[in-house]
Specification:
- By secondary structure, the chain is an alpha+beta fold.
- Among the domains are: 2-131, no CATH class; 163-275; 457-550.
- Helix content is 57%, strand content 10%.
- The protein has helices at 21-38, 118-123, 169-178, 182-204, 213-239, 246-253, 260-274, 281-291, 303-313, 319-332, 336-352, 356-373, 380-397, 400-413, 421-437, 441-455, 458-470, 474-482, 491-508, 511-523, 529-548; strands spanning 2-5, 11-14, 42-52, 55-60, 70-79, 83-93, 99-101, 104-106, 127-131.
- A hairpin with a 2-residue loop joins strand 3 and strand 4 (55-60).
- It is elongated.
- The protein starts with a strand and ends with a helix.
- The relative contact order is 0.05.
């Protein structure tokens, strides 16, 4: 929402309802530019940040949709004399639907979103105004210079005279992408990038020298909004058959926003490009080298960069460093499902060093934090994460009620609208694993088979075989294991395959089965105490079985 103030004390209101952050802030930039044509004497720039009351440093996305969550509204205003103002107020909605600012209950109505904004304006205090030295001149590049969008063409031949079409451009580009018109999606995305960078030069660069928190907020908005464009641009390049040109765009964009966070995000995106569209060992090694260009990872707080760094370098980290990094990811991640995912990962890390007590503690904390902030209706990702985490906790604590809770949660997730095959398969697999924890092997096999039918994943065949071993169905197990395509499995899947063959060979006691199981186990080099112990115990059992039959 934007409020334009006029000299006759009237206020005109403009509601901006856009589906993504980049388009919303691009529209704000347009309003700021158009203000001189309206005769208004002030422009109010509003962004929203939602905070959980239990810990104001941790953000959630639900805001006023959930009772008991605090929301803060930050406003940046610039008047015609060049003064900049910043103010902020926190509020929340109680169980009766009333808006609360501090201890004061305010009237709230669904009829107009502006009704509950009025008392907030009264609560604001203006802090430390700064002065524009001058309003920036139009920030278009000259006709002969390279276009800001990174196409490699001159501005005159690319976005000149057309970039105003970039207003709401990212939303339009996504729509064309969904319609498989990838060329049009790319063109509109480029126009939107040019438009945004021009607004950045006009409205952010002139005040960049001030260290005021309002200026820092505007810069952060620009970085995050522009990065949404860059992320989408990578998909457009891939679909248009110009995938290999993308790193040149990233290098060209590096100086377009003068901030280390922007440069770090471009390095991150280049590393992602090496892993896209298929994650390969060669791409992984290149991505590691690229990510090492970020010299001071301790000074990085963007959870996306931290998550990729953990994924690429976890095997090279000592346990304390991994725990510290995961804790940092939990602290700075915003989506509650990400906080849960990495909170649960913290527990799994403790499991790897055989510290079950600490693992249980971390899992409980992760589940509790999620439940406090969770909306009434969960997404697929939220359902899958919380169901799987509760099931793991139930397995470790031998709590059948927790496992039942997990199964109910995951079964409910299967009723979500627009689930794709991979999402259905993930939920079905999680349900099967929960039944395994209850030693209900029949149900486990049933759900593993359902998961396999959704995506034809040989790992589900391996899991089904492991459950069938517990049921004594050894002939079925042999047929299943012999039809598994070993090359289709990743490193962890191959270890699971080795475990399945080992369990099977221990039951059959046949020499050829034992030899195959031993050979499969030797292929895996576990890095954690937990899996080292699993491997050592299986090898010892296989050798005892082999010696017994001699």
């Amino acid at each position: 929402m934007a409020f334009l103030g006029y000299s006759n004390n009237q206020v005109r209101q403009c509601a901006l309802i856009l589906r993504n952050r980049a388009d919303k802030h691009l529209a704000y930039r347009k309003l700021a530019t158009d203000i001189e044509k309206t005769g208004a004497v002030s422009f109010v720039f509003i962004t929203e940040v939602w905070k959980a009351p239990s810990n104001d440093a941790h953000l959630t996305k639900e805001g006023m949709e959930s009772t008991g969550l605090k929301e803060s509204l930050d406003v940046i205003a610039a008047d015609k004399t060049g003064k900049i103002y910043w103010c902020s107020a926190e509020f929340e909605k109680n169980a009766d639907g009333q808006l609360i600012i501090g201890n004061e209950v305010c009237k709230y109505t669904e009829l107009s979103t502006f009704n509950w904004l009025i008392p907030i304006f009264k609560a604001w205090k203006i802090v430390d105004p700064h002065i524009y030295k001058e309003i920036a001149k139009r920030a278009e590049p000259s006709s002969a210079k390279l276009c800001l969008c990174g196409s490699g063409q001159t501005f005159e031949k690319c976005c000149s005279g057309k970039y105003s079409q970039g207003i709401n451009g990212l939303e339009k580009a996504h729509e064309f992408y969904r319609l498989h018109n990838f060329s049009k999606a790319l063109n509109i995305c480029r126009l939107s990038i040019t438009q945004y960078l021009i607004w950045h030069k006009q409205h952010t660069v002139p005040i960049q020298t001030y260290a005021h928190s309002a200026v820092l907020k505007i810069m952060y908005v620009d970085i995050m909004s522009m990065f949404e464009h860059i992320e989408f641009l990578m998909f457009c390049y891939e679909k248009n058959g110009i995938h290999d040109d993308f790193p040149n765009v990233l290098h060209f964009m590096a100086d377009k926003i003068d901030d280390v966070r922007w440069k770090n995000l471009l390095v991150f995106q280049e590393a992602c490009w090496e892993l896209f569209p298929n994650w390969t060992p060669e791409g992984e090694e290149k991505a590691r080298r690229i990510l090492l260009r970020i010299k001071d990872m301790d000074a990085v707080y963007d959870p996306r960069i931290l998550q990729l760094y953990l994924q690429l370098f976890r095997d090279l980290m000592q346990f304390p460093k991994a725990i510290a990094l995961i804790g940092k990811i939990v602290q700075y991640s915003v989506p509650i499902e990400e906080k849960l995912q990495y909170g649960a990962m913290m527990g799994i890390e403790y499991l790897q060093i055989l510290d079950n007590a600490s693992a249980i503690k971390e899992l409980k904390n992760a589940i509790l934090g999620f439940k406090k902030a969770a909306p009434k209706e969960l997404t697929f990702e939220q359902t899958y994460r919380i169901g799987s985490t509760i099931a793991l906790l139930g397995k470790l604590t031998e709590d059948t009620s927790a496992i039942e809770e997990a199964i109910i949660c995951l079964e409910k997730g299967l009723g979500l609208i627009d689930l794709n095959a991979f999402e259905k398969a993930a939920l079905l697999c999680a349900i099967a694993e929960a039944y395994e924890s209850q030693h209900d092997w029949t149900k486990a096999v049933e759900y593993f088979n359902k998961s396999h039918k959704e995506v034809n994943n040989d790992l589900m065949v391996v899991f089904s075989a492991k459950a069938l071993i517990r049921m004594g169905e050894l002939e079925k197990v042999r047929k299943l294991l012999e039809c598994v395509n070993f090359d289709s499995l990743d490193e962890n899947g191959r270890f699971d395959f080795g475990i399945a063959w080992s369990d099977f060979a221990i039951q059959t006691s046949e020499h050829s089965d034992i030899e195959k199981a031993l050979a499969l186990l030797e292929l895996h080099k576990p890095k954690t105490p937990y899996f080292k112990k699993v491997k050592e115990d299986l090898i010892a059992e296989l050798k005892r079985s082999k010696d017994t039959n001699i």
